[in-house]
Amino acid sequence: MGEVETALKRILDLEDVIGLLLIDQDGSVLRNTLPEEHAKKYVMEIPSLTIMCRSAAREIEPKDELQMLRIKSRKHEMIVVVDDKFTLLLLQEYPGFWIEPPPPPPTPPRDSDDEFFDDDEDEDEE
Amino acid sequence: MAENIKHRSSSAGSASKQSQRGSPKRSASAGKSRDATATLRGGAAETKAGMPALPLGQRENNRNSFNAAKARADKEAMAGAATLRTSTQLSSRRQSGSSQISTSTKTSGRPGRGKKKKRGQNDPIQVFNENGKDVTPKPLSSLKPTVLSDKLMSISAQSAEGTEFVHSVPIYSRTGFSVTSTAGELTPETDELGTDFDGLESDGQEFRRSRRLGGSAILETPRHPKRKYAVIPAPIVEVTVPKVLRSLSPSEIELEKPIPIIITESRNCIMLNMRGHNLNETYANYKQVMERNEKYLQLKEAKLGNLDNYTANISQTLFSLLKNKEAQASSLSTQSNSIQVNSWDIADSVAGKVKPDQYQPWKVVQHGSKDHKTTNPTTTVVILPEIFTENDGPNVTPPISPPESRRQSMASRKGSTVGGYSRRPSASVGQQSRRTSLASRRASTSGGMSQGQGLDDVLRLMSPASAVTGAGSAGGSQGGEPVLLEVDISKIPGLLKALEHIERACVLNTYHDRLLDYMNFRAREEEPPPPTPPPELDKDGKPKKKRVVKEEPPPPLDPLAALKEFEEKEEVIPKVILPPLEDSTATVHSIWDFQCNVTEGRNISCMSWNKMNRHLIAVGYGEFDFGKQRDGMIAFWSLKNPRYPHAVLPTHSGVTSVDFATSSPSLLAVGFYSGNVAIYDVRNPRDLEPMVKSSFATGKHADPVWKVQWVDHATEHGEGLVSISTDGRVSQWSIKKDLEFVNLMKLKKVPSQNKGAQPQPFISRRSAGLCFEFSKKDIGIYLVGTEEGPIYKCDRSYNEQYLMTYIGHNGPIYQVRWSPFMESLFLSCSADWTVRLWSEDQTTNMPIADVWWSFTHACVFAMASTDGHMEMWDLHLSVMKPIVAHTLAPDDKSLLSCMMFSEEAPLILLGGSTGVLYILRFDGLLKEETEELELKKLKDALAASVTRHGAV
């Protein structure tokens, strides 16, 4: 097993790593350990994001180059390493990240049972 | 043919009476070209004859003659048109006769009709200018009459014999030529023939025969009534006899009307203009040339009389003959590519960062198989970078949702039209087609061309940017699954680095809180201190040194801490639980463990902080015991990845000590169990070999190196490496050329301090050094801890003798450490269960002469020092300070040698060297009521202040 494979396995052995996705320059998936439905979404969404970020980085500082992209969402952290030859995406999830979303505002209870009835009545009338 | 021409020209000439020069004037469209050619030829002859042409100016002459002929033809055409008009009005017999031919060709049901009609259709269209001139273009090609005349004769004869007609343009021209020459003398006969027309007017077939007869008279072919005759149709534009007109419907008449088409003459363009090499007066530079020739002649004459060896001679130089040759070349193929670039793309390519092949936005590959060698643009498919074109037919499951399937079908239709002819088995693409399912799906959703199977060799998108662009243009998701491909990814450059980065990022996320803890950022509230964990012991019973523990340094003078350290250090089998001080707030808790499968089961022998990067630790792995020796290892642990070492250096021998240099932080000195000293440059963690290494030749240690340390010799050669070994050498190494050493000290054994014992012969004259440390106060001073127990204070200036010897430890001294705050203090730890705190200058500890337990108080004992000093200790109250310290009177020089408690009374008896027995009474000691309580008190005191062993 080569160094790369060893490193890959080590990463995948980390307890809070959901999966890893390696896309080559042509958009082909070389490695994928994500669940299928995740992988599809990420393959669709992430490259467009990286190109935007890459462009932004270059616009800000022309000699600069985007190397890594970390997106922290409520549930996950996406770590994307951008290279000429490949795009490496790692999805991490662990309890420390999980911030409970604020509970949705309680829907005002419909105190208008009468209205329901009224509506029904109206409909009946019609 | 020729007879027809003859007839027609003669008839036209007779009708219009304009055939003055012998050139036939006709209104026939077919005959026009003949006339023109004839006059052209005649004109050419005239031009040739009349114009003194230069010998090499043929082309120009040709052009002139052509122009002349054209002009002449125009003139004649005008005349012919006039003839036409007059003849229509006069309705002469001959015209009517000829018109009858044309009508008869249309009406009669003869077998040859079809061919004749076809022939008529093939007749060139007449073109008139605004003046009514016939400017019908004439055939440019002509044949030389002399060459063709014989051949044509035979052809015409044959045609007269068997075929219905033979017609071709060259024959026209040829016959035209012949007619020109003979028209004059034949005119009478045509007149005579014209009489025949009168009789045969009603019968078109007969008339044709008569025409034929007229022609045959010229060619001297025998008349034969049954013969099929070649028929030259009359010009379409003929105006006909009223009698015939009657049979035609008005619309037909309209059809027969000549349609004037106005065509203006365009400018002559000169296709080729070559000057001749000969001159005549008409040339513009004629004068200049003549003058030049004149000058040359004069020069020649002048030269003749000179003394130079000049001879007039004539020589001929060769012209380089030019040859014009036409060649056919394939048409230029053009391709147009376009790409969208950002400004930084341009910047990159200007800076040369982007290799051309790397940044090739697309590769246009010839569509179709390899036999398409020609680059025909029509077979080239250029596909924009947004479009992915790979498709692996069998692997792609068709999309499910209706709109996408519609798109897919559109795309596939496009693909079939564009890439239809490239559908060939994609055996050659092998791997590519396997890993393209996703891309192809993208291609289909982005509305691109989903091409045939062979299309992924049509182009490969090389640029990552464009690839990503293409991905970005992809819309929603698709059916099908990402195919996990077992591609060898170890060859991808930079992937290892990326994996390292991503691993670190990931682990740092995981360890975020703990790292904050490590870095002593207390953003959050202090957690309640967990119960002090027992010291973790590994297999050997040694505490795990790799555990990074943030801890306040123990108070140096606290014997409890010393005891604790001692107990951690030594193999104390029973569980040791030390109660913390009541007022202590110090806590210890585990943050994380640096451990991985690589280092598992190895003994950590040493570690060192990097002096520059404080988050990097070099940890040496090696066994201490002689019997367990195995290969060693150095692992570099970094805070950036607590899960795996940054790098690992395997070593042949066990590592016993490591130290990072200060001045060049990448240098790591390593001491080995084998006695070697090596220096690694760790800038490249892949470099597994040391930069320099000691050897037998350069004088390695004979015994294990127990400590290496970089020492800054500011006054000398910068930073030097000092090592100590059990062979008794303290060596300083320099790496100027190779690793060379200078012995700072050869440790010699000192005779035992025990005065009474007999000095025993030494097995080895050297004292085995185990540790050393240089003083921070004076860089030349250092301490050496030996295996035998003494600690030596040495100076680098004297490599023979010790400045001071500290005797106290009985076992090997594992470490000595100067206090960073108080330069004269140092600690030592030893295998004799003790940690000792030393003051640099104080060496005179007086012996304790006697000690005695109190009979009444379980926790109290007293001791007498030889310097006239008596102390009473109460273990219950303190183990640090005596409860009573009694010193004899200053003038009393007596040394105490023994003491005794009294059982009856609180008395202490002291005996000294002067013969005086001192009796002291003590008061104020608390006493429990019963002895059991006293015993319990003692046990509590032991448990509280010292230790609690299982047995106690």
TrEMBL record, chain A:
Gene3D superfamilies: Dynein light chain 2a, cytoplasmic (3.30.450.30). SUPFAM superfamilies: Roadblock/LC7 domain (SSF103196). Residues 112-126 have a biased composition (Acidic residues). Residues 100-109 have a biased composition (Pro residues). Residues 97-126 are annotated as: Disordered. It comes from the Eukaryota. Residues 4-92 form the Roadblock/LAMTOR2 domain. InterPro entries: Roadblock/LAMTOR2_dom. Belongs to the GAMAD family. PANTHER family: DYNEIN LIGHT CHAIN ROADBLOCK. This is Roadblock/LAMTOR2 domain-containing protein. The lineage of its organism: Eukaryota, Viridiplantae, Streptophyta, Embryophyta, Bryophyta.
From TrEMBL, chain B:
SMART domains: WD40 (SM00320). InterPro entries: Dynein_IC (IPR050687), WD40/YVTN_repeat-like_dom_sf (IPR015943), WD40_repeat_dom_sf (IPR036322), WD40_rpt (IPR001680). Residues 1-142, 387-454, 524-559 are annotated as: Disordered. Signal peptide: none annotated. Residues 10-22, 78-110, 433-446 have a biased composition (Low complexity). Keywords: Cell projection, Cilium, Cytoplasm, Cytoskeleton, Flagellum, Repeat, WD repeat. One of its GO terms (biological process) is cilium movement. PROSITE patterns: WD_REPEATS_2, WD_REPEATS_REGION. It comes from the Eukaryota. GO terms for molecular function: dynein heavy chain binding; dynein light chain binding. One of its GO terms (cellular component) is axonemal dynein complex. WD repeats lie at residues 806-839. It is found in: Cytoplasm, Cytoskeleton, Flagellum axoneme; Dynein axonemal particle. This is Dynein axonemal intermediate chain 4.
